[in-house]
Specification:
The chain is an alpha+beta fold and 135 residues long. The protein has two domains: 71 residues, Arc Repressor Mutant, subunit A (Orthogonal Bundle); 64 residues, 2-Layer Sandwich (Dna Ligase, domain 1), CATH 3.30.1490.190. The protein has five helices and five strands. The protein has a three-stranded mixed sheet, with no helix packed on it. It has a two-stranded antiparallel ribbon with strand order 1-2. Helix 1 crosses helix 3. Bound molecules: zinc ion (2 copies). One zinc ion binds next to strand 3. The site of one zinc ion has 7 residues, from helix 5.
């Protein structure tokens, strides 16, 4: 039994890892496609277990909640066109973040920043379309 539940936990974890940032629906769709034996209840149960274990986390974005595997702290960029979520390293902005901590009278426990716009590949597609229109 122990072994079986570990395998299922791994399936859920790897699916999230592979999909990057995934909504519950996307995740369920993916797992049901590749691992028919894993039930919906099992997926939900393992999502809670993985969160309790600190292996995955749920991020709240304006476009909806997504799961990701726990990685070093980072910001998120969300594409308004295709909905793709990508990571932006916090490293380059560390001075800015330190400044916020230093100046604030409150005790900041976490800084969550999400940026919204048009991703690189959507922008390229858009440019190509415009080129064709011009010709
Ligand atoms: Zn996009
Ligand atoms: Zn992320």
């Amino acid at each position: 039994m122990q072994r079986r539940s570990t395998v299922q936990k791994q399936i859920v974890f790897h699916a999230i890892d592979l999909l990057g940032h995934t909504t519950t629906d996307e995740l369920i769709g993916y797992i049901r496609n590749h691992h028919q034996q894993v039930s919906l209840a099992t997926i939900y149960r393992n999502l809670s277990i993985l969160q309790e274990d600190g292996q995955i986390r749920k991020i709240h974005l304006e476009s909806g909640d997504v799961f990701e595997t726990v990685k070093p702290d980072h910001f998120h960029f969300v594409c308004n066109k295709c909905g793709k979520v990508s990571d932006i390293s916090k490293k380059e902005y560390q001075t800015f973040l330190d400044e916020i901590h230093r100046k604030s009278h409150e005790e900041i426990e976490m800084i969550s920043v999400s940026l919204y716009g048009i991703c690189h590949s959507c922008k390229q597609k858009e440019e190509k379309k415009n080129e064709k229109v011009c010709l």
